[in-house]
Amino acid sequence: MQNYWHRTLQQRVTRRRALVAGSALTASAAFLAACGGDDDDNGGTGGTGSEPTSSLISKATNETSGAKKGGVLKARNTFEPSTLDPHLFPNNFHVAATYSNLWRVKDGVIDYSNGEVTGELVESWETSPDKLTITAKLNPNAKFAPVAPVNGRALDAQDVVASWERHSSKSNQRGDFSNAANPAAPIVSMTATDARTVAIKLAAPNAVVTARLARSTPGSMFIVPKEALDPAVLDVARTSIGTGPYYISEFSPSVSIKFKRNPGFHDKDGFPFIDELEYPTIQEYAQFIAQFRAGNIYEAAGMQAQDILPTKKEMPQLDLMETYYTTVLDRVGFGAAPGSLFTDERLRQAWVLTWDRDLLLDAIFNADKFAADGLDIDVVYESGIQSNSYAGWLLDPKSSNFGPNAKFFKLDLAEAKKLIIAAGHSDGVVDDFDLYYAAPQAAVPAAYSAQVEPIIGLTQNSGLFKWRLNVVQNYFAEFFPKYHNQSVAPFAGVSVSLSNLPDDPANYLFSYYNSRGSLRMGTDSTLDDLTSKAVAEFDNAKRMTLTHEIQRYEGGKNFYPRFGGATGFSLAWPVLRNRQVYRGGTGRADTNNPSTLWLDNTKAPLKA
Questions:
Q1: What pTM value is reported for the model?
Q2: Helix runs in 340-471, H state only
Q3: Is-contact 372 448, C-beta < 8 A?
Q4: How far apart are CA 122 and CA 104, in angstroms?
């Protein structure tokens, strides 16, 4: 377990002991106390609270009108992609910088995105009266990167058709898109009616198909050149050529990845501004922090929450800004294979009743330390969808309108034991099953690895569940196909997987909770009905109501429970402008795709 967990979790346990002595919380607190650490509640990292909030926080300001083009962004790459193929998940998370979708989700400006869809490569479109055909006109100014064999030529409709052909036959996410691969998926075909026009045929009316085609995570329907149909001409697993704002200019495995601005990228707002991006591969946390403090990395994306305020106070020249919700990556999945103990919902419910969510979320997001400095963050629970979904779509289980299933979001070991006994385990203990999680490795985000042991420890130290532990060494080859997706291979036992998929909430819930969803981890007839209705509902308010109903229902079933998320703060050098201005759209405002950011070379660290 990493040292920061030793420290931060122990601090919270120390403070809680006076409150929970003799209560049901003691068992989970015992695990956290066993992590060791200093009993000093300040832990050497907290602030005094003496500085006013206004002296700490820099306000997000839209400086787009005064943006200057040029410069080299210094950031970092946190894991090694096994392929550059944009149609495979999970792999290269820089795909949104190098490839484009037909549509994209509009960013919110200062406020978070509300999920409105606009064209990216599509200039305009119309839907037939029966809602079964979308006719899309392509942007005539969109061009590929200046890389052989495409050499910066203009996009045409045959590129879209070829991309569809390739994606629907090769992508491991094609079940979200192609009706031929999955009868529940929306798209039957894409054909070119002329050089600039594409006709998209749907299997049934679908309200969120353009949002699905705007998804910017690996494996999505990115547009590749038609030359990619023949790997002998263009192998996109090795050579990245898209119509995105950047292209890969240099890739040194395990060392770095570099990008240059695509001169053929067309955006009416003038994005992107930055000319080049440099991402050395840095996975070791201490090395990352040292490089950021030295000014060799401009934004501290991935800085642990408890390090943010001390760094700001030591280096007041840094900009501290509020951020939207971040979700806990780790997520517990229960085996649905025949014979799995966890097909009994009472055991799933008992499991989540061993969680002290407040303790865990406070430790992860450092809420009490921020509060001590007058910086409040909003900590929420999650059911079904992520807290960083579109504004208004999350239904927090702590809210008064969540309903009776809110009881499963509270620590209650006595009730957990009753459920276990009712499920046929007379001694109140569930054993003889396997628990799986992925070992730390280049393909796995460091946050997942840091949180997995504390998460399973909350349950382990309840004494109610005893398992055989299986730490899976190869994420891509073994863990992901076997323990992360039960639509492909149902398993028995329990897995701790990771899930942070920016997507339309209705699409997201369909993928995970419909029996025909491409990432399905658990479902029943009620979830099948609700998720099918949600993707077919064209009225935005009614669709939101359906997603809220799904969140309430999953809060009781716990097929694939989430923990929660929180707003927070991030640090960067003042050279990086427009931070936290464009928010929540199709990945254009972070260091994986900094299209809306710009560099002011008159500010630190470029100028003292």
A1: 0.86
A2: 345-352, 357-365, 367-372, 413-422, 446-460
A3: no
A4: 9
Work out the angle at residue 379's Cα, subtended by the Cα atoms of residues 375 and 381, and round it to the nearest 5 degrees. Answer: 180
Alpha carbons 569 and 204: distance in angstroms, whole number: 43
- The percent helix, strand, coil of the chain (3-state, each to 5) is 30, 20, 50
Residue entry with tokens 């396997």: 434
Which of 214-235 are b and which e, b meaning 16 or more Cβ less than 10 Å from the residue's Cβ?
A: bbbbbbbbbbbbbbbbeeeebe
Q: Which ranges of 129-190 would DSSP assign to H, the alpha helix?
A: 157-170
Three-state secondary structure readout of 514-540: CCCCCCCCCCCHHHHHHHHHHHHCCCH
The full DSSP string for 224-251 is --GGGGSTTT--TTTS---SSSEEEEEE
What is the model's pLDDT at position 207? 97
φ/ψ of 8, rounded to 5, equals: -70, -40
Within 13 Å and on the Cβ side, how many CA atoms surround 388? 21
Task: Tell me the average pLDDT across 326-341.
Answer: 95
What is the pLDDT at residue 217? 86
Q: State both tokens at 579.
A: 């931070």
| H helices, E strands: number in the chain | 16, 21
Query: Which amino acid is located at 121 in the chain?
Result: L
- pLDDT higher than threshold 70 for residue 373: yes
Distance CA 265, CA 121 (A): 10
For 136, the 3-state DSSP assignment is: strand
Question: Across 494-584, where does the E strand assignment appear?
Answer: 494-498, 564-572, 576-577, 582-583
The helix (H) or strand (E) run that includes residue 544 is: helix 540-557
Cβ proximity of 303 and 293 under 8 Å: no
Say yes or no to pLDDT of 15 above 80: no
Q: Minimal CA–CA distance to 184: which of 431, 514, 508, 586?
A: 514
* Sign of the CA dihedral with 245 first, then 213, 563, and 377 last: positive
